[in-house]
Structures are given as C-alpha cells and as structure tokens.
C-alpha cells in the first residue's frame, strides 16, 4: 500500500480513538504514528524525533508490525514503552517499564541544572554532580552529555531502574563520566570520597501523595513503576528527607535542585528556609506560572 494512503488511513483511526496526557505534549496522533512507523521499519524513534525523519516504505511484514504497535498504543500502553525511545533535552534515550518515562516538564529542572553546571565549569576543572532518584538516568545523563566538564554519580532505590540507567549510559557512551549505584537516596554514597564534594545535586523525587497514585490515569499507574510516583501520605516525604541529607554531600556553596508537584512549591520553600542549611532559595516556574523547581545553595 502507498505510504501516504496507509499513513492517512491509520491516522484517521488514531484521531478518533487516541487520548493524550497533558504531561506528554510531544505526543499527537501524527507523532505517535510516525514513532510507531519508524519502529516498525527497524529504526525506533521517540515521538519528538519521529517528526524529523522521512517515513520509510514498509514491507508487508513491517505493516503487520505497525498495526500491532498501533493496537498496543490504543490499549493505553505508553508510546515510549512501545518504541523503546524517549527524547529528553534533545537526546534520544532508551525507555522501558523498568523506570519512569522522562517528561518534558522535567526539562525545566534539567536545563536549570545544566546552566548551573556550565557556570561552575568556568571556575573548576570538573563539576561533580549527584543525580538522586535517577530513574532512567535522564537528568544526570543529559547534564553530562551537554557539559563535558561534568562527572555524574547517580543512584536509585530500584534495582531495575539502576540497570536501565546503565543501559542508557552504554547507549550514550558516557561510561567515563557517569556511574550509577543502587541505594535509598544518598545511601550508596555514604563514603568519605563523597562527603562535601557535590557541586550540584539534582533530584526528581516521588512527590504524589499515596492516596492520589491509585487515581492516576491507567496509562501511568498501570504501566509505570509506582515507586517513581509515591511520595508518601502528603507527597513530601522523600523531599523532606532529601533536604535533611543533602548538606552532608554538598560542597561549600554547592547547589541542590529538585522538582516539586503542582501546589507544593510555597510549602517546600518554607521547609527549605526552616532547615537553616540553605541560602538563595529560589523557585523556577513553568509556562503556566506554577512552581515546578526549587533550587537552594548550601549555607556554609
């Protein structure tokens, strides 16, 4: 079948049947079909990257594969898990059910942390970064990829997420500057060599309250690891622990940057202030003027 005719036929079905999540703005009927198409052709791409590459002509076998991929998507399997790819800060990364799918909103945190690292790199030979609750490793890997003067120490509580991060390290060929260990928050780095050494600590912690996790869209709660979302009764349990433990690992005047949920910003900024461990406590807002990132400098 002609490529244009086949594309139009399937897209019409997606237009009427597919529903999209607000936290995945890059996914549309068009980008979803293109991503599935490239994957069926043997050249998997994320929704974001799929739009940049011409569609290949598919064989009959590849058309069958395409229909199978589209059916999975219509059954609410996340697109990134179907294609095995997700774009983050302009980088194609591996994606599968072992870790949370990186979201566009987390690029606010990633880009701010990258900016801080670039500023510090003007004064230091190497900038040491810790990526806590690393998941797929997207934050630390993006910083390392875009700033060659960084070394990254990543960690996650989930063994599966750590293995997934290692796969992404290999995929991006960043073995020399990024390493990942399994552990609860900073537990993997409880060594003298890490105390007071991190110039930057980044974290995208679980921040959704336990009661709300079960009410999340099935595409999320039914497929992505619950551990990556559940932040305890009020959604702030992990963040409060992060704020308490980070000073032990931050270098003098080092920066802590982390993502927060909608509506949590003012409360978390107040907690930062009350710890007495931080100064220059700042917030970064999204396009809708919601606080999504908090950054604070170690108070020597």
Automatic annotation (TrEMBL):
PROSITE patterns tied to this protein: N6_MTASE
Catalysed reactions, as listed in the record: L-glutaminyl-[peptide chain release factor] + S-adenosyl-L-methionine = N(5)-methyl-L-glutaminyl-[peptide chain release factor] + S-adenosyl-L-homocysteine + H(+)
Keyword S-adenosyl-L-methionine: yes
Residues covered by the Methyltransferase small domain: 126-214
Entry keywords, A to Z: Methyltransferase, S-adenosyl-L-methionine, Transferase
Signal peptide: none
UniProt xrefs under NCBIfam families: hemK_fam, RF_mod_PrmC
Name of this protein: peptide chain release factor N(5)-glutamine methyltransferase
Organism: Hanamia caeni
């Amino acid at each position: 079948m002609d490529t244009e005719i086949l594309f139009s036929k399937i897209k019409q079905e997606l237009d009427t049947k597919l529903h999209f999540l607000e936290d995945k703005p890059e996914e549309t009927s068009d980008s979803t079909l293109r991503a599935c198409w490239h994957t069926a052709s043997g050249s998997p791409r994320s929704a974001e990257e799929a739009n940049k590459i011409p569609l290949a002509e598919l064989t009959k076998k590849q058309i069958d594969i395409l229909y199978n991929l589209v059916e999975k998507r219509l059954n609410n399997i996340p697109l990134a898990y179907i294609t095995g790819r997700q774009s983050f800060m302009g980088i194609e990364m591996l994606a599968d059910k072992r870790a949370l799918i990186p979201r566009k909103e987390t690029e606010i945190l990633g880009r701010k942390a990258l900016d801080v690292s670039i500023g510090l790199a003007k004064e230091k030979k190497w900038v040491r970064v810790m990526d806590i609750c690393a998941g797929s490793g997207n934050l630390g890997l993006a910083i390392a990829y875009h700033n060659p003067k960084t070394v990254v120490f990543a960690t996650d509580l989930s063994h599966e997420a750590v293995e997934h991060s290692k796969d992404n390290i290999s995929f991006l060929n960043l073995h020399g500057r990024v390493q990942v260990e399994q552990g609860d928050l900073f537990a993997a780095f409880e060594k003298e060599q890490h105390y007071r050494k991190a110039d930057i600590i980044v974290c995208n912690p679980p921040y959704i309250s336990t009661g709300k996790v079960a009410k999340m869209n099935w595409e999320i709660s039914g497929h992505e690891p619950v551990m990556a979302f559940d932040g305890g009764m009020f959604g702030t349990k992990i963040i409060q622990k992060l704020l308490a433990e980070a000073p032990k690992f931050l270098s003098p005047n080092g920066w802590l940057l982390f993502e927060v949920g909608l509506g949590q910003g003012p409360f978390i900024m107040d907690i930062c202030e009350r710890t007495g461990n931080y100064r220059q406590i700042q917030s970064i807002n999204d396009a809708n003027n919601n606080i999504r990132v908090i950054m604070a400098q170690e108070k020597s």
